[in-house]
Amino acid sequence: MHKAMKKILFIIGSLRKASFNRQLAQEVEQMLGNRATVDYLDYADVPLINQDIEFPAPEAVKRAREKVAASDALWIFSPEYNYSYPGHLKNLIDWLSRPLIEGDRQSPLAINDKKVALSGAGGSAATAKCREKLTELLTLPFIHADVMIEPQSGISLNKEAWTEGRMLLSDEQKALLKLQVDAFLDYIG
Asked: What fold, for 6-188?
């Protein structure tokens, strides 16, 4: 019996079109090849979380929740902002952690039990604090995402990235990414 191809939703923690983390995601997409289908979550229009507009959920929030719910797994590629994750990424996760129906705290959320891989491209710390804090956030009891702790990919960007906007991965970095790709496919099952 042929197994259905897994759907992985990529969430980029930088909203910049040519961001290094988008480039990193594209690298991973190539490595996945035809072993999974990949989609990118566009969440730039998700409003700041505000209980005054929570029910009914804004269209952008509904769309994000539907995409997350329809995927088998999430792969977050995020830069590190001030030793943590970007505010807009936290805002998205905050929306994903809220009840879908007013007053209903029993029904599962779009993000519950979702398998998650974490990667990031950034400075010399290779987004270590961002990935640590994302793991802490995503594994909170009410969010209860299933984060793959090891391996994760943290990329320290080359000098061309900072001067020319081009991310060049070393053979060692590519090997680490490939290891994470293969491990995540196993993790998803």
From this structure: Rossmann fold (3.40.50)
